[in-house]
Amino acid sequence: MSDRDGFEQRPFALPPGATEVILVRHGASAPAVPGVRFPLVDGRGNPPLSEAGQAQGEAVAERLAHEPITRAFISPLRRTHETAAPLLGATGLQAAIVPELIEVCLGDWEGGEYRVRAARKDPVILRMFERERWDEVPGAESQESLAARTRVGMDRIVAETGPDATAVAFLHGAVIGELCRQAADSRAFAFVHSDNGSISRIVVSPNGRWLLKTFNDIAHLSVLARVP
User: Fold this and answer.
1) Strand order in the sheet with 210-217
2) Rounded CA gap, 176 and 115, in Å?
3) Which of 53, 159, 172, 190 has its CA 20 to 30 A from that of 31?
4) Can you give the pLDDT at residue 109?
5) What does the pLDDT read at residue 228?
6) In this model, does residue 217 exceed pLDDT 80?
7) Is residue 211 helix, strand or coil?
8) Is 89 exposed, middle or buried (0-12, 13-18, 19+ CB in 10 A)?
9) How many angstroms separate the CA atoms of 20 and 217, rounded?
């Protein structure tokens, strides 16, 4: 067979009529302090970004600024707004808020308490990861609730972005983990550990099927890790 009769391997291309959604986890937020709760929005802690989180947002903007993104989305919480700001400034895009994609509610441990208890290896949190259910935490949201509402939010993004187009959504760790779980049809917490400032990508075909293209891409953050 001659060379002209061969078929070379080619990089992935968006299928006709599909929509790509780039999921960006917000940058690192301000440290949690024992006994001092973050302010709440819709029952969720609402801290600002830390200096490290702001740098992660700048790195995300540099990574994505030249991609063919036509729509941008954020959650109702401050840390997604602040992470998105550099990219929005660079591209002129305006972000729409998707209430259904707010972070998982951690009930009695909202406002930073969860982070404090996680650092102290609270046995309830250890059990939560073993059983892969958020509602092991007192008063927290169920896995079923998170799954249902995030599906609604993702469907909204796809509908508003349209076919043959790419959107970016600045979201939260549990939300991104759940959306990736749905794309891969995996166990509940298989994708729960995404890094701050990481990029994951889901492609939604015209028939509604989801493809998890990438998860937790942090190549753009490597330069930050080398800064003393």
Assistant:
1) 95-97, 69-74, 165-171, 19-25, 199-204, 210-217
2) 18
3) 190
4) 98
5) 47
6) yes
7) strand
8) exposed
9) 15
Predicted TM-score (pTM) of this structure: 0.94
Domain spanning 15-105+141-225, CATH architecture = 3-Layer(aba) Sandwich (3.40)
Determine the average pLDDT of the residues in 177-188. 98
The predicted pLDDT at position 222 comes to 82
Strands 210-217 and 44-45: unpaired
Q: Which residue has the tokens 């954020």?
A: 74
Closest CA to 204 of 166, 152, 173, 175: 166
Type of residue at 176: I
Residue 74, H or E segment: strand 69-74
H or E element, residue 101:
none
Confidence tier at 225 by pLDDT (50, 70, 90): low
pLDDT tens track for 133-160 = 999 999 999 999 999 999 999 999 999 9
Q: Measured between alpha carbons, how far is 94 from 71 in angstroms, rounded to an integer? A: 8
